[in-house]
């Protein structure tokens, strides 16, 4: 058996739960994956049990750390709100795990976990005050103030995707609709008259790089909308930097393009002297795992 202290870390996503055995320095020793689309939390825990038994034979497991969608009340161990995984909400998650596995359990929102990872070992490690935006099917994120994740009175601080960027024909359009990868794909599909199923972020940028005029218009507006989101966050929360995550954040030249759009915004708004400082996150798909571990260590000592 590996005798160092280890932890089982789970990251709940819309289609799967990524699992890993990690040590206290966030090194991943072994991985697993399980379906997240099940009928109940009991059903998920039953699917986890064989893997847990295998891990416990090989590692000295000290606890279970969970990253999950939803508004997480970390004190009660309850996930409020709503998500694509209906079965995870409004039950005592910690009690579910503890009764089966007999280990300490901590859980936190996935956006907050990503921010904890970056603040601990990543791009936010030199800053006590930063924001994180995750660009994907929507715009999620988190706020770190004085080194701690800010949750807000209703556990929704950092849910930037709900914010309204502008109105069109009286209809509010949110950050998620305008500045997410999914939003860009949907607008491109409408402009080209094709099904969104025929496109993804990579395909849209491929058409952009090929000089497709219609796609150029959509993507340039997307860059401007994203830059405007960063500007608004800067003057709402005044972070030292704003970290950008999600698969699309790996797009070559993303930061340079955003800064070009910010140049234009500031040229028309010269009274605004503070400029957003966008940076890329350091961790990719493992950010939520690393942050969930950090949250566990913070809570359990």
Structural class: alpha/beta
Shape type: globular
User: Helical amount among residues, as a percent range?
Assistant: 25-40%
Gyration radius, in Å: 20 Å
What fold name stands as the CATH topology of the largest domain? Nucleotidyltransferase, domain 5
Would you list the SSEs in sequence order as H and E? EEEHEEEHEHEEEEEHHHHEHEH
Instruction: List low-confidence stretches.
Output: none
Quote the average pLDDT.
95
Using the coordinates above, name the CATH class of the largest domain.
Alpha Beta
Q: What would CATH call the architecture of the largest domain?
A: 2-Layer Sandwich
Outline the structure in words.
The protein is of the alpha/beta class and 301 residues long. The chain has two domains: 2-114 and 285-300, 2-Layer Sandwich (Nucleotidyltransferase, domain 5); 126-280, Nucleotidyltransferase, domain 5. Helices cover 40% and strands 27% of the residues. The chain is built from nine helices and 14 strands. A five-stranded mixed sheet has the order 3-2-1-4-7, sandwiched between helices. A five-stranded mixed sheet has the order 10-9-8-13-14, sandwiched between helices. Strands 5-6 form a two-stranded antiparallel ribbon. Strand 5 and strand 6 form a beta hairpin. The longest helix is centred in the C-terminal third of the chain and has 25 residues, at 213-237.
